[in-house]
Every structure is written in structure tokens, then in C-alpha cells.
Amino acid sequence: MTMDDAERALKIDSILAARYPASTALEFTSPWSLLVSAILAAQCTDERVNKVVGGLFSIFPNPKSFAEGNLEEIEEAIHSTGFYRQKAKTLKALNAALLENFGGEIPKTAEELTTLPGVGRKTANLVLGNAMGIPAIFVDTHVGRISARMGFTKEKDPDKIERDLMKILPRKRWTDFSNLLTHLGRDACAAKKAKCGECPVAELCPKVGL
User: At what angle do helices 141-149 and 174-187 cross, to 10 degrees?
Assistant: First the structure.
């Protein structure tokens, strides 16, 4: 990566920060609640998850209640998020492991978080960065796609994309930049049709692959 990439990334970061919120669209009150929401967000919109978790957490307010809860009741509470049977099994197993291995507390490293059932590096970094104040780049489909279009990476593997972005961004901007690219991806830089005419950083983007 060249210094030009780093300078361009900072300019893009600044422009996007003036247009979008530098936070995840998932609503949360704690690292644990964000972790649960992130599991539910797979193949589901953040908006739908935000509507579901209020009722969900009134029934299952902590890791113990999930671990000991009735699987069918969990399924019923999260039904509208899709793939509810698998998600319910994951949430039950995740919370049981969280209690057994970490005393019910969310660990503070991606390496530890990814030992939990259903938690990959993307989800771990999302939680660390947004709920725990630990800078981390999470590579979801939006971040991966837009990073390539902007010429910041040629990689397809999320872990390698993460490393490429780490090279050009100040550590303190890792989380916010990830959030901003996600918002841009949902707004102007969609997978099937990029709306470059509506993109606030189009002049700074080489539009690789478009």
C-alpha cells in the first residue's frame, strides 16, 4: 500500500463521517446484547433485528436465561429474523459456552470471542469496536466489496482484507471506517448496482470492477 492510499482513505473517512453515523445500525445496550443482535442479523436486516430484540431480551435478559431456556421459546421469539432454528441453537450454545468459559462476561479479544459457537472474526470485531471501545476492522460484505472498488485491496478473504485496511488507516479509525463503509454500501454502493452519481466520495474512488 502506498502513502497515496493512506491519504485517500483518510479523505474518504472524513467525507463519509460527515454524511453517515460512525456507528453500527444495530441497537444495543451492552457488548452481550450486541453479540446476540449480530447473530440474529445474519441474512436479516438490522432494522428487523432491532424490532425483535426488545421482546427477546424481556424473555431472555442474560446469558443464563438463554443457556437454560427452552429452545422452542427462543425460536418463537426470533422467528421473524429468518433461519430461526439454527440461530436459536447457536444462541443457546453460545451463551452456555460464555457462562462456562468466561463467567458470562464478553471476552476482550477476537481470539477468545471466536471460540464461542457461531462467532466469526467479523462478529467479534464488530462487538469489540462498537461496544467495547477496542479498535477493530470488521469485514462484512459491504466493507469487502467497497474496499475492493476503492482499490484498497485485491483480496477476497475477509482476514486479508482486514489486514490491508489496517495498513492504511490509523488504529483509532478502524471501527468507524468499517461502520461508514457499511452505511455507504446500503446507501449508494450496492452490490448489484453502484449509484456513483449519488456517492459522496466518487471522485476519490477508482471504481475497480465497475
Answer: 90
